[in-house]
Amino acid sequence: MRVVSLLPSATEVVYALGVEPVGVSHECDYPPAANEKPAVNRSRVDPDATSAEIDRQVQDAEESGGVYEVDRETLAELDPDLVISQGICDVCAVDEVRVREAVNDLGLDCEVLTTDPHSLADVFADIERVGAALERAERAADLVEDLQQRVDRVEERAAGVERPRVAVFDWLDPVMVAGHWIPGMADIAGGAYGMAERGSRSRPREWADVRAYDPEVLVAAPCGFGVDQTVRDLPALTDREGWDDLTAVREGRVYVVDGHHYVNRPGPRLVDTLEFLGWCLHPDAFEGPPADAVRPLEAVLQQ
Predict the structure, then answer these.
(1) What pLDDT is recorded for position 66?
(2) Which of 8, 35, 181, 263 is least buried, going by the fewest C-beta atoms within 10 A?
(3) Cβ contacts of residue 254 below 8 Å, gap of 6+?
(4) CB 47 within 8 A of CB 222
């Protein structure tokens, strides 16, 4: 089957199910083999800019045709049987409306499968949907079973612990508190996530609200940013009035996490993220994560 995946999480799922896509999105970089596939879309935003600059570019792009463009010529050449798109966020990846328009205009004979997860359970259901579309239902069921067992182990380790107030930022300027799957994951990992409801969309928050909430654990994981890029953009947080007064800062419980590969990508590695979050919340109960995925802010500032 000829598969085109237009978002990184779906690309990870397709590879995990033993299928090699013929085309991917410009952001698909895991597993490494995905880098060698032709990109079927383009971004109109500079991914290396600061949080504030990217926010401005996104607003400008949305007013003039959208953040992403579908490379119709490449899509037609690939002639897919299945295109996997998303409906969760117009900023994260090309949305299904543009994909369906391109498929219809090109007269392609293919199925468009749309994902729109807002919880770990939704992610697991999407894996099974993709597995059914790829005729890999049994392999998808095995993958979900393995992932669910790891989730259960995290929940068991976090049972009965004191639950610190935690906030996860998936953007720094403006500050955005992560929603969707993150509130539920924080609960599983033994945290109290008081700034967003389960399944709610990520949205900007006033800094005064963050200070009033006063997180005891704070995770900076901007969407699309790896650890190094987040570190470069940290002044967007650390220069804010009252930063040093936050309990998480005073107690050394601020962490920089690779948002691009983990927090903001609803694929199989969200379970890795859950385990990382468990360590951030309860380091005595969980193994330490790799440094290329999670770094304590104190360690960053000492470099």
Answers:
(1) 62
(2) 35
(3) 217, 218, 219, 220, 248, 296, 297, 298
(4) no
Residue 41, beta-bridge partner list: 70
Select from 44, 37, 46, 109 the least CA-distant residue to 70: 44
Q: Evaluate the omega torsion of the peptide bond into residue 183 and state whether it is cis, within 30 degrees of 0.
A: no
Of the candidates 186, 183, 168, 163, the residue with the CA atom closest to the CA atom of residue 255: 168
H-helix segments, 69-213: 72-78, 96-106, 120-133, 137-157, 182-188, 207-213
CA dihedral over 134, 139, 145, 151, signed as positive or negative: negative
What stretch of H or E contains 158? none
For residue 161, the surrounding DSSP H or E stretch is none
Q: CA-CA distance, 223 to 58, in Å (whole number)? A: 13
Amino acid at 47: P
Rounded to the nearest 10 degrees, the angle between the axes of helix 120-133 and helix 8-16 is: 60
The half-sphere exposure of 103 on its side-chain side, counting CA atoms within 13 A, is: 20
Domains, the chain, in order of start with CATH, read: 3-116 (3.40.50.1980), 161-301 (3.40.50.1980)
**Backbone dihedral angles phi then psi of residue 279, each to the nearest 5 degrees:** -65, -40
Q: Which residues pair with 70 in a beta bridge?
A: 41
Given a contact cutoff of 8 angstroms between Cβ atoms, the answer to whether 236 and 183 are in contact is no
pLDDT mean values, one per 10 residues, the chain (303 residues): 94 97 94 95 71 73 65 94 76 66 89 92 96 97 98 95 96 94 97 92 93 98 92 94 97 96 94 97 93 88 68
Minimal CA–CA distance to 69: which of 45, 103, 43? 43
Local structure of 199: helix, strand or coil: coil
Can you read off the two tokens belonging to residue 145?
């079973």
Q: Return the beta strands (E) in 191-260 as ranges.
A: 203-204, 217-220, 254-257
